[in-house]
Design brief:
Blueprint lengths: L4 E6 L7 H17 L2 E6 H4 L14 H12 L2 E7 L7 H8 L10 E8 L7 H12 L3 E2 L4 E4 L3 E2 L2 E2 L2 H12 L2 H10 L1
Parallel strand pairs: 1-2, 1-3, 3-4, 4-5, 4-6
Antiparallel strand pairs: 7-8
The protein binds flavin mononucleotide (FMN).
């Protein structure tokens, strides 16, 4: 049987990156729990062609590979750093290249990181409406992690780990539905 594929995408260029660490953590937990195939990317994987791309077909092969993985995923884990209370422009530009139909009905677990707690609702006020535009199924529990939730670039907060567990629980229905369609 072909396994469902979970793709993680972090809208950060940084390496190391707290956002990428969060996406990788969530993706690893979900894939281990449900036996999913996993791939995780960040904005650096997309590469420099993103900046000048007017459509997804203008991306170079590296960028096109990430775009294909994202739009063909059975389940998505999206992560974004918080910049000025919202997602970074280059993250939005990558999402802008996606055709509205390509994410329709897709389960999306949304996550974000920020320096402090003040912008914790960024996941609800910025990321959820963005994926609402695509008529994607955003998972009810969204994850926001601040600097205090990390030790270096490792997730260190039990409360955050518990919340990630709740969000991963909520993926279960979509895993069953996805398998039913195969
Ligand atoms: C340009 C810029 C703007 C930022 N704006 C905010 C902000 O508005 N609110 C916040 O909590 N953190 C803000 N931060 C901090 C980052 O969101 C935070 O350090 C994040 O975890 C970085 O993720 P990364 O390690 O994946 O790059 C900003 C950082 C940068 C570089």
């Amino acid at each position: 049987m072909v396994e469902l594929k979970l793709v993680g995408f972090s809208g950060s260029y940084g390496r190391p990156s707290k956002t990428s660490a969060l996406v990788a953590y969530v993706a690893e937990l979900a894939c281990a729990r449900y036996g999913l195939e996993k791939a995780v990317y960040d904005l650096a994987d997309v590469g420099d062609s993103l900046g000048v791309a007017k459509t997804q077909f203008d991306l170079d092969p590296a960028g096109a590979e990430v775009m294909s993985a994202v739009v063909e995923a059975d389940l998505l884990v999206i992560g974004s750093p918080t910049y000025k209370g919202s997602y970074p422009g280059m993250f939005k530009h990558f999402i802008d290249l996606i055709d509205p139909q390509q994410l329709r009905g897709k389960p999306v677990l949304i996550t974000a990181t920020g320096g402090g707690e003040r912008h914790a609702l960024m996941v609800e006020h910025q990321l959820r409406p963005l994926f609402g535009f695509f008529m994607a199924h955003t998972i009810p529990t969204a994850i926001y992690a601040s600097n205090n939730d990390f030790s270096g670039h490792e997730i260190a907060s039990p409360a955050l780990q518990e919340r990630i567990g709740f969000a991963v629980d909520e993926l279960q229905a979509f895993v069953h539905m996805g398998r039913g369609r195969r």
